[in-house]
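Appendix B. One record, verbatim.
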Amino acid sequence: MKLLTLNAHAWMEENQHDKLKQLAAFIDEQQFDVIALQEVNQSMEETPLSPDDLGAYYSADPEVVIKRDNYAYVLNGLLSNAYHWTWAPAHVGFAKYDEGLAILSKTPITATVNEYVSSLQDYDNYRSRKIVGIQTVVDGVQAWFVSGHYNWWNDEESFRGLWDRTTKVLNSFAPTPVFMMGDFNNAAEVRGEGYDYVLQSGWSDTYPNAAVRDEGHTVIKAIAGWESNAEPLRIDFIFSNKAAQVQSSTVVLNGKTGPVVSDHFGVAVELEL
């Protein structure tokens, strides 16, 4: 099972179309089974697509309207073999986008989850956070794969509350395996905050359990939300609710393994359940 998570920073990158093509080529090369994306934007003013345009799209919310420049839709159209996919918005991003979360899957989607995990559900406030996920079968195993983009530990809408609501939703999927993937905005290097809180709640980080792994850092400079950062951080994770045999955990799309396509690097994991 090959998984990828990436904060795409969609439509905010210089040379964005070139980077989209590079990301699509990397996905074609690596053949991930499931891909979780965050900061997946579409222009609020863009033209809506018709259902016939959407390909193997599985709606997580019948009220969601997919626009022509939806990043996940455009990316999927660049792939040699299109994936099954879903997307849902969480809030307004950068004053002009519907900012959301997406999951792409090589295998058909059988169910979705699309839930606010913040107490705040104000679409105009970026602190309104959701999780979006799919159920599918990979390597003969039925599992859930969920994408999330979280607030900081000391935010007024704090990570702790977001994670408590997340686990309430995800625990309802037991005993099915669940992979929680995304940008957690809580550094693994910091003790007593979000990363430790996730582990204490019973979830397993695939990174330290990997037989082969690298430094793991997905942010190495100051970026949006981490404007004063001056050190490498590991803030993008793939957590599992069950023990897994993790062959490798690799930072990708970092200029070494794949091109840089976002202000975050991605995390790719190979594992068996």
